[in-house]
From TrEMBL:
GO terms of biological process kind: methylation; RNA modification; tRNA processing
Bias (Basic residues): 12-22
Protein name in UniProt: S-adenosyl-L-methionine-dependent methyltransferase
Source lineage: Eukaryota, Fungi, Dikarya, Basidiomycota, Agaricomycotina
Stretches assigned to the TRAM domain: 61-123
Domain of life according to the entry: Eukaryota
Length: 536
């Protein structure tokens, strides 16, 4: 993390001199950094430069707990409204959750940082009816719970905002010229707007010592006032009590009540805080023997229609994605919105094997193309799924390839990926998984022909490290599909890949063929993004 001493130029010297504050620039691509870039866009670069030059970027014009009247100018990539300090004050932004551009608000300042303060919303004095309709809100905790930001917006507006996030991310982090970016397509909607989350992780703190010593005080079934089982309150690390969550699936909501009752009854037995897990799963009691599993698995049998809620981090969870069956460990990674996984995996497949263009005269019927440019590359035959988890992309895309290799850090996920391949009847001669750092895969795919290979990249939020990118560039697959839960690190990494090959010869240079967001988390500001890179 970059730090520098504050420029105290022009400040009183000697006695009474203010102690120098250390200015810590946010970690690049962190949510603070993303917010700061949004703030600069609102205040204007020239104004910001002036304040930075003066060295007064930490001198908030507001007192702690001051109430201010503001007009919101923009909505940031993290979902908060960004207002500016009233006329006559220095250029200064105020970040207020749950507010929308054009709205006039009253807010109370609670924290200040570089060129901005954070404030709690007190009142929306003039709402923006073109965007806000509070009757859309489906959750009684909305506005207090930190989970959702967008329930007052139409779903179309949410989708449009998420496209803007992708656009801004590539402008701010890719280090690419606008001319090297394809038109950023509209964000693909989630089929379910509520009731989609297949995983919930509420938490609670340990009881106070007095409650542990006096179990009778908590064993009457009534929830003590000090106990909150739920999620963080907006903008805080304080837990708020949550009895239901409308973005979670009905199966999870049905399990929340009984689980809460058990915890309340036994709370005196807990010595530490706990993070719970609720995962929507198919019934896992009928075991499937991978050695005898046939494809397609008979999903019409009861085993594949009865749903349960898994609440043990170590238990197996089972779900289907179209025709494919997946099992994974309750505590391990799996995408949290099942409804969008067929559209997502189909999209990746269609991006790798583009359909003929609607304007293509050889096409028998008009079809929609998934991509903007279709270079003449040989049909891919080999797939490398990096950061593969329990094999989502490797397995769902496997029919289109002769050979598939996956790699993933979690040995548990790799055990499941291997089992999932067997459950789905894919031969071990065709598909293999190994545990390790993603960059290790390039030492074992030496027999994959790069010109016929696709590398899928789906890393955690921090993106890829430089070692991975340099080995990827050495391997130089014809196609790279980068799926990301953090479009800012994706933009950074895609920029590195394109810039590293910008001066390369024919067939050695990557272009960004298509880019678009996917909405895995409706009602929140989060956006997933898929970038398709091709060698030209
Ligand atoms: C966003 S998830 C994607 C998983 C999978 N593609 C899916 O869609 O289910 C990222 C995965 O990367 C794994 N991971 C994290 N760091 C890694 C690394 N250095 N090398 C390989 N895998 C890593 C995590 O364990 C996690 O399973």
């Amino acid at each position: 993390m970059e730090t520098r001493k504050r420029n105290d130029k022009g400040k009183a010297k000697g006695k009474g001199k203010r102690k120098q504050k250390k200015i810590t620039a946010p970690e690049p691509c962190s949510s603070e950094d993303v917010l700061f870039k949004d703030i600069v866009a609102v205040l204007g670069q020239a104004e910001v430069d002036k304040v930075l030059e003066e060295g007064t970027e930490l001198d908030s014009p507001f007192e702690f707990h001051q109430e201010v009247e503001l007009e919101v100018r923009a909505i940031g990539s993290n979902g908060e409204g960004i207002a500016v300090a009233p006329d006559g004050t220095k250029p200064w932004a105020v970040v207020v959750p749950l507010t929308l551009p054009g709205e006039k608000i009253r807010a109370r300042i609670y924290k200040s940082a570089r060129l901005h303060s954070f404030a709690d919303l007190l009142e929306i004095t003039t709402p923006n009816p073109a965007l806000r309709d509070d009757s859309r809100v489906k959750c009684k905790y909305f506005g207090a719970c930190g989970g959702c930001q967008y329930q007052m917006l139409s779903y179309e507006t949410q989708i449009n905002l998420k496209r803007d996030v992708v656009v801004k991310a590539y402008k701010n982090y890719s280090n690419l010229l606008q001319s090297s970016l394809p038109p950023i397509l509209s964000t693909i909607a989630s089929p379910l707007e509520y009731g989609y989350r297949t995983k919930l992780t509420p938490h609670f703190e340990a009881p106070p010592a007095a409650a542990r010593k006096n179990p009778s005080a908590t064993s009457d079934g009534k929830k003590p006032d000090w106990l909150a089982i739920g999620f963080n309150k907006i903008g805080t690390h304080k837990t708020m009590d949550i009895e239901e969550c409308p973005i979670a699936t009905p199966v999870i909501n049905a399990a929340l009540g009984p689980a809460r009752e058990r915890i309340i009854k036994n709370i005196h037995t807990y010595e530490r805080g706990v993070s719970l897990i609720f995962r929507d799963s198919l019934d896992t009691t009928p075991d499937i023997d991978p050695r005898t599993a046939q494809q397609p698995i008979d999903k019409l049998s009861e085993a594949f229609t009865k749903q349960i809620c898994v609440t043990d981090h170590k238990a197996t969870v089972r779900e289907t994605v179209g025709e494919w069956i997946f099992e994974y460990n309750g505590g391990s990674f799996f995408q949290n919105n099942n409804s969008v996984l067929v559209p997502l995996t189909d999209y990746v497949r269609d991006a790798i094997f583009p359909l003929p263009s609607a304007t293509d005269p050889s096409s028998p019927s008009p079809v929609t193309v998934a991509v903007s440019v279709v270079p003449d590359t040989p049909r891919p035959t080999h797939l490398v799924d990096t950061y593969c988890g329990s094999g989502l992309f490797a397995i769902t895309l496997s029919p289109n390839f002769e050979k598939v290799a996956g790699i993933e850090l979690s040995t548990e996920s790799i055990t499941f990926a291997t089992r999932n391949a067997r459950l789905n009847g894919i031969s071990p001669d065709k598909i293999s998984f190994r545990s390790g750092d993603a960059s290790d895969i390039f030492s074992v795919v030496g027999d994959f022909p790069p010109s016929h290979s696709v590398v899928v990249i789906d890393p955690p939020r921090k993106g890829c490290d430089d070692a991975f990118i340099s080995l990827l560039l050495k391997f130089r697959p014809a196609t790279v599909v980068y799926v990301s839960c953090n479009v800012h690190t994706q933009a950074r990494d895609v920029g590195k890949i394109l810039n590293a090959t910008a001066d390369a010869g024919e067939g050695e240079r990557y272009v960004l063929q298509s880019l678009r967001g996917f909405d895995l988390f409706p009602q929140t500001a989060h956006v997933e993004s898929v970038a398709v890179l091709r060698l030209v």
